[in-house]
Amino acid sequence: LNNVPVGMGQALCICSRGSITIDNKKYYFVQKLDEGGFSYVDLVEGAKDGQFYALKRILCHDRQARQEAQTEVEMHQMFNHPNILSLVAYAFSDSGGKTEAWLLLPFVRKGTLWSVLEKLRDKGSSMPENQILKIFRGICSGLKTIHDKGYAHRDLKPTNVLLDEEDRPVLMDLGSMNRARIEVRGSREAMTVQDWAAQRCTISYRAPELFNVESHCIIDERTDIWSLGCVLYCMMMLEGPYDLIFQKGDSVALAVQNPVTIPSTCSYSNGLQTLLSSIMVSNPQERPGVGWVLDQVQDLQSRSPNTQTNMV
User: Fold this and answer.
1) What positions does the domain Protein kinase occupy (predicted)?
2) 34/40 Cα distance (integer angstroms)
């Protein structure tokens, strides 16, 4: 095992030894949960407490990647909110010139909002309106906390929302978060922001103003409001408004310039459909803030039968 090359091999080495130690506490590797471009998520069990955790390992291939991992840690530490994923512990592992960031996170058994929606779609079912409102209210609540601190999530989508057994949504993957207001001065800065968005903001949930960034403008937290609308649409229709356009290879950048069309087959209340239309506005200046959206959701909940109005 000692001959396994570091880098990706280091991760193999950890798993084959069966345990890792963070903050002097030992965790046993159980199984792989997910894999991304430069990160891996494993299910681990605390040797002392017997609790399950999600261990996110980020391979930092250069100094910038290490700084980005450090920023992700700091973003987690900034928030203490039931709708934002907390950070249990973290460590940076340096070996043979390679660095890995280890983020120990709570394990949410039910999985992502997307996995729940996929199961509904497979069954030919749909999500009841009061459940949509409950989950959406929690998402808005977490997002409002981020915006109130002067930050934006920048990659809000159903795969970045976890659901616990009580349907409480938890926002995760804070790696794309940055300051809410980005002042763009000149075409070079505009191109830098556009390139960054192309890398970090999922295309079918990306706000229109991030596809063609103007030379002199302010990008703000209302990019998240657009993504929030896409998430609401996905909960209602069981697919994102631009998923099919992207899958067909057509231009998402072009499609997002037009108002979103709600299918005539949509069986949800006029109130919910109106809320969706008011969120998904192409011009960011005309888009509402998350506080307004939250108020509308609470109003819809109070008018909706069989809806618990207690805070999520």
Assistant:
1) 27-300
2) 6
C-alpha neighbours within 13 Å on the C-beta side of residue 273: 11
> pTM for the whole thing?
0.89
- For the stretch 213-243, what's the b/e string if a residue is b when 16 or more beta carbons lie within 10 angstroms of its beta carbon? beeebebbbbbbbbbbbbbbbbbbbbbbbbb
- Per the listing, tokens 């509402």 go with 288
Q: Which of 96-100, 204-208, 282-286 has the lowest mean pLDDT?
A: 96-100
How many Cβ atoms are within 10 Å of 189's Cβ, its own excluded? Answer: 16
Alpha-carbon gap, residue 58 to 183, rounded angstroms: 29
Tell me the residue length of the chain.
312
Catalytic residue among 42, 49, 62, 155: 155
Report the relative pairing of strands 161-163 and 151-152 from DSSP bridges: unpaired
Catalytic status, residue 155: yes
pLDDT tens digits, one per residue of 166-216:
999 999 999 899 999 999 999 999 999 999 999 999 999 999 999 999 999
Check: CB of residue 158 under 8 Å from CB of residue 234. yes
Domains present along the chain, CATH in parentheses: 8-106 (3.30.200.20), 113-303 (1.10.510.10)
